[in-house]
Amino acid sequence: MRISFIGGGNMASALIAGLAGKLTDGANIHVVDPNPDALARLQAAFGVGVAPQIDATLADSEVIVLAVKPQQMREVAAALLPHLGRARPLLLSIAAGIRSADLARWLGGYGAIVRSMPNTPALIGRGITGMVASAGVSAAQKASADAIMKAVGATVWLADEALIDPVTAVSGSGPAYVFYFIEAMQQAAVELGLSAQQGRELALATFAGAAELAAASNEPVELLRARVTSKGGTTHAAITRMEQDAVGPAIVAAIKAAAARGRELGDELGAGD
Ligand SMILES: NC(=O)C1=CN([C@@H]2O[C@H](COP(=O)(O)OP(=O)(O)OC[C@H]3O[C@@H](n4cnc5c(N)ncnc54)[C@H](OP(=O)(O)O)[C@@H]3O)[C@@H](O)[C@H]2O)C=CC1
Ligand SMILES: O=C(O)[C@@H]1CCC=N1
């Protein structure tokens, strides 16, 4: 499969790292980005083809992954439009907020669009991607999009595009919340007298182990939490403090803020012709 990436930044690099040499050869991947350093890094690491701007090379791609910032998408659509005619590739957008209908409108009514929301654990093949296909996407194109994202983790197809903003808020942005929690655990470890290295090792192993345990168990996470929480014990002291400080409601509110920002980006950037 020949795949092009428009934008070779953080998320594109994570996807390319997961794809190259697995789903397709690096030589079948083409990356467009204005930054020479980013292109040189990707070329050296994965043997991908590179270009500083959109050109006719794109016409050979079966799938074009749109991996620029949401604010850059409209300009990219204008540059892409002249190159879509012949091969009619699938456009696989990973941009937060940008609605398929707006993208299609900027592309003169182009219908072969899958909107998706991956996350950075794709870098190690442990990503999860929410996806939704527009009406103009063929079954074969949907299968290609699924194969690309499955090569870097799991996929969840959504019946309604409105659910992409919640997916963005939960799993697209989610790794940042997990890293934030790990940072806090590391800080606590150091403040309690452990070394930074020990704090890191303890926090990471605990996160990974607890997540794997929850995934392997049929029991709800509330029950798994209750099993750690001995009556009158240490966990109870910690959870009581978290409840006093409304940590759970603050996390829920934060995730809702992310979803609202996704909708707001769609409104802001999709407005007008
Ligand atoms: N980071 C993440 O965890 C996730 C990000 N996403 C989505 O992925 C998209 C990219 O995010 P991210 O990788 O973090 O952002 P980055 O800024 O790291 O990457 C975007 C890249 O696109 C380049 N670019 C700008 N204009 C063009 C153009 N006209 N043609 C080609 N390339 C261009 C940028 O260059 P320059 O810096 O010079 O502008 C930059 O290198 C966003 O839409 C985001 O919503 C989705 C899921 C998770
Ligand atoms: O923060 C963002 O907007 C992007 C989308 C999901 C993760 N990063």
UniProtKB/TrEMBL annotation:
Q: Known EC number(s)?
A: 1.5.1.2
Q: Name one GO molecular function term.
A: pyrroline-5-carboxylate reductase activity
Q: Where in the cell is it found?
A: Cytoplasm
Q: What EC class is this?
A: oxidoreductase
Q: Which SUPFAM superfamilies match?
A: 6-phosphogluconate dehydrogenase C-terminal domain-like, NAD(P)-binding Rossmann-fold domains
All copies of domain Pyrroline-5-carboxylate reductase dimerisation, residue ranges: 161-265
List the InterPro entries hit by this protein, alphabetically.
6-PGluconate_DH-like_C_sf, NAD(P)-bd_dom_sf, P5C_Rdtase_cat_N, P5CR-like_CS, P5CR_dimer, Pyrroline-COOH_reductase
Which Pfam family, any one of them, does this sequence belong to?
F420_oxidored
Which protein family is named in the record?
Answer: Belongs to the pyrroline-5-carboxylate reductase family.
Official protein name in the record: Pyrroline-5-carboxylate reductase
